[in-house]
Amino acid sequence: MNQPEELSNEFEQELTRAMRGVDPAEGFADRVMARAQAAVPVRAKVIWIPRRIRMWAGGAIAATLLAGVFFGEEAHLRHQREQAAQQQFELAMRITDRTLEHVQQQLSDAGVRFGH
Questions:
Q1: Which of 22, 37, 63, 69 is spaced 20 to 30 A from 53 at the CA atom?
Q2: Backbone φ and ψ of 101, nearest 5°
Q3: Four-point Cα dihedral 70, 71, 77, 83, nearest 10
Q4: CA 92: distance to chain centroid?
């Protein structure tokens, strides 16, 4: 037998011992039932907030939401403008490259040599 199997068997035996049924102490159920019946019901803790503060908090939340929408829209528009500018720049570079290639070809056809 190799070590992993021995460890596995030992673990399973220990787990089996730990999980065996155990009878409760004498009178356990009676004590639990008596305590459950005698317990005072727990009431939920209610926090009372003055109306002025609730109104102020509601206004603050609404203002925060409006600011978020406004700044989110601004960021979206800025991103769109940046994309449009990038596209325009790329188009301008392609046009410039083609124009330079065309001029170089015309100069080459005219017999003008370049400094390569």
A1: 69
A2: -60, -40
A3: -170
A4: 39
